[in-house]
From TrEMBL:
It is a single-pass membrane protein. This is ADP/ATP carrier receptor. TPR repeats lie at residues 119-152, 354-387, 388-421, 456-489. It holds the Pfam family TPR_16. Residues 46-56 have a biased composition (Low complexity). It is found in: Mitochondrion outer membrane. The keyword Oxidoreductase does not apply. The chain crosses the membrane at residues 25-44. SUPFAM superfamilies: TPR-like.
Amino acid sequence: MSASESSATTFVDRVRNFVSENKQAILIGTAAAAIAVGGIAYYASTSSRGSTSSTTDVEKGEKKDRKSKKKKKGVSDADGPILEERKPKVEDDEAVDDLSKYTAEVVAALPQEERSRIAGIFKAQGNDAYKIRDYAKAAKLYSRAIETSPKAEPVFYSNRAACYMNMVPPQYELVVQDCDEAIKLDINYVKALNRRASALESLERYPEALRDFTATTVLEKFTNQATPLAVERVLKTMSTQNAQEILKSRGPKLPPATFISAYFAAFRPRDLPVLPENPSEGDNTLIESFKALEEHDYKHSLELVNDALEKGISWDVGKSEALNLRGTFKFLIGDVEGAKDDLNESIQLVPSFTQSLVKIASVYMEQGQAEKAFECFEEAIKHNPEDPDIYYHRGQVLFIMNKFDDAAENYTKSTELDDGFVFSHIQLAVAQYKAGNLANAMAQFRRTMKSFPQRSEPLNYYGELLLDQQRYQDAVEKFDKAIEIEKLKTPQNVLPLVNKGLTLFQMDQNIGAAERCCNEALRIDPECEAAVATLAQLSLQQGLVDKAVKFFEKSAELARTEQELAGALTYQYATNAQVEFAKNYPQLASQMNAMARSF
C-alpha cells in the first residue's frame, strides 16, 4: 500500500464514519429527513451490541405484571414462552364455555358484543395451546377467533403468525400473510413488524426484511438491542451477496487513474528493461507497455502487456518484468489469485527480482497471511539488502498492523538507503504521530516539506495532522498550497481539495464551501471516491436523502473489490430503507426530532 493510497483509504473511512460522529446534527434535519437518516446513524454506532429479546412470543389474555424486570422468554426456553397482553381481553372464567357449539351459523346470529366475547375465548385457548407448543391447535383456535370476531383484530393475526413461525418446518409465507393483515390494521404494531421481518429474512427477501427491521428499530426508539443487530445482519447479507453478483456480471475493472498512480508511485522508478540484441515482436510490445505506463495510460498498458505475453517474450528478465506488471494490474483489479500466480512465476524466472517479492507480500497481506508476507520480505533482503523499497513496504505492513515504532525503523532504513523518496519521509512522520511522538512527527513533516518543496503530498499529509488537532486555519493553508502544486500535474491528485472541504465543514459547518470543494474534485477526477463519499454524507446532513442515495450508488459503481462494493451497497441500502420508512411513517417526524435533541 502506498502513502497516497493509505491516505485515501483512511480518508474514505473517516468520511464514512461521518454520520455516527455527527448523529445529533443529522437527526435534527427536516422532518422526513430526520427519520430517513436516523437509521443510518444508529446503524453506524451499534454494530457491537448484543441481542436479548425473542421475536416469537404471542400475546396473551392474562393480566401482565408490568413491574417485572425479568428477561422475556421465548418458545425455546425450557419453561415455555411468556405471553403478552393485547386487547381484546377476556376474564378467566369465560374460558370454561363449550366452544364446540359456536358453529359458523350460530356465531353469525349472535350480537356483536357476544361475538367479541367468544372470539376472546378462542384467543385465550389458543394462547394455552401455544404455551404447551401445540402450534397447530393454537393456529386453529386463532383462526376461529378471526372468523368469530365482528371486527378484525391485529393481535389474532399476529398470534397465528407466531404459530406458523414455530411450526416444523416453519410456514414463512403464512407468517408474512398474517403479519400483512395485522400491520394493515395497526401500522405501528412492532411485534408483527418484527415477526414479518424475521420471516422475510428466512425467505431471503432481504430488502423487505430490512424495511421492517428498520421500522421496528425507529418505532422502538432505538431501545431494543436486538433490532440494530438484525438490521446489520440483513444489510451484510444482502450487500455481500449483491456485491458478488455485481462483480461477477461486470467483470474485471481497473480502479481510478489516481488510485493506480498512487500504487505505482509507492515504488521507486526504474529504467526500462534492456532489450536483447534481436528483440521479438513480444519484446517490443512489452517496452510499449512500459511507455504507456509512464504516460499514465493504464488501460492501454494492460492491453499491451497481455499482448506481449501472448506473442511471447524471448528473454527471462523481460518475461519476469511482464509478469510482474500484469500481476500488479491483476492485484489492482482485485484478482488476488491471478496476481499471486503471475508474481510467483516472475520470481521463478528471476529469483532475485525483489519487486515481485515485495508485491507478492502485499498479496499475502490482502489474504490475511502476515507470516508469509514477512517471509517474502526476508527473501527479498537476502537477494538485495540495499533495496530501499523492501524496507518501505515492510514498514507499510507493520503500520497496518499498528506496530508504529517498528514501521518507523523500516521507513528510516529506507530513507538511509535513498533519501530522495518522499513517501518514506512522510510515512515516518505519520508513524511517529500514530505512536504518540507529536513533536518528532511535526518536526519530520517540516523537514520533509522543506526538502520536497514541489511535492504536494507532504503538505496534504501535514494538513491532515493539523485537521486532526483541530488547527483548521493552518490545515486549510496547507491544503491550498497542495492544491496549487497539483494543478500542474497530470493526473491531478484531488485529495487536498476534498480534505479542504471537510476542514471547512468541521471548522464552521460551511456545507456550501465543502460541497464546492468536493464538486471541483469530481470535475477534475470523476472517479474520486473520497469526494463522492463526502458529498453523500453532506447530503444526509442537509436532509437531501434522495441525493445521498445517488452518491451512494456512485460509490458502488466506483468500488473495485468485493469488500469496497459491499461497503458502498450497505450505505445505499440503509439509506433506501430510511427513505421508505419516512414515506410510511411521516407522522413520526416530531418524535424523531425530539429524540435527536436528547442525544
